[in-house]
Specification:
Largest sheet: 7 strands, mixed
CATH architecture: 3-Layer(aba) Sandwich
Order of helices and strands: HHEHEHEEHHEHEE
Oligomer: single chain
Number of helices: 7
Distance between the termini: 30 Å
CATH topology: Rossmann fold
Helix content: 25-40%
Number of strands: 7
CATH superfamily: Vaccinia Virus protein VP39
Structural class: alpha/beta
Strand content: 15-25%
Shape: globular
Number of domains: 1
């Protein structure tokens, strides 16, 4: 299982603590709050890299409106089918779905995305050594001035929910990794009791 696939298990509301431990993200991470902090606005083009069944993609589609676009990408065909059905049922034609692995190739042209979201997956990418492929693709598809938004589990909060503390990254560690690929931190904030959000933009030249 790749890092993105593991992260999708998190996005699908399941965690290593198990279903019997109350380890579900429903009510713990507010997608509307996250999207507002990301600066998603009407007409924006959003990439949800590792979208799961659409926990962020569906509210993002409402926020960007008919003039915007949400590209929803996941390695799981089953989850993409579920999201596609939900988008059709809700009349959200601005959601376009893909079965793909963002650590290999994002099926979008260069300079096409305003905001790329990666939620609950970055710690797995680091652990799997898959950051280079992923962030190279993110840089390629982001427009000049585009934003990478990373949401992940706080390292200093005992689970549930989330992965083992030994697998988590604090914001300083995330920044240290990401800036190697030509992105710099704009700002960070807490988005609930268990998560933080960090926003990155592209540097003029890769470091």
């Amino acid at each position: 299982m790749t890092g993105l696939e593991q992260g999708m298990e998190m996005r699908g509301e399941h965690t290593e603590a198990g279903s019997g431990s109350g380890a579900h993200l429903e009510g713990v991470l507010d997608p509307h709050l996250v999207l507002e902090e990301m600066g998603v606005v009407p007409g924006a083009v959003v990439l949800d890299a590792g979208c799961g069944e659409g926990r962020f993609s569906i509210p993002a589609a409402s926020m960007v409106g008919g003039e915007g676009k949400v590209y929803a990408l996941d390695t799981s065909e089953e989850r993409i089918e579920s999201l596609s059905r939900a988008a059709r049922d809700q009349g959200l034609a601005q959601i376009e779905t893909f079965v793909a692995d963002a650590t290999e190739r994002i099926p979008l042209p260069a300079d096409s995305v305003d905001v790329c979201l990666m939620a609950n997956v970055f710690h797995d990418l680091v652990e799997d050594g898959a950051v280079k492929g992923n962030l190279s693709e993110v840089r390629r598809v982001l427009k000049p001035g585009g934003v990478l938004a990373i949401v992940d589990f706080k390292k200093n909060v005992q689970r549930p929910p989330g992965p083992a503390l030994s697998r988590r990254l604090d914001p300083v560690e995330v920044e240290r990794v990401v800036r190697q690929y030509g992105l710099h931190r704009e700002r960070g904030t807490e988005v609930g009791p268990y998560h933080y959000l960090i926003l990155f933009t592209m540097c003029d030249t890769a470091s």
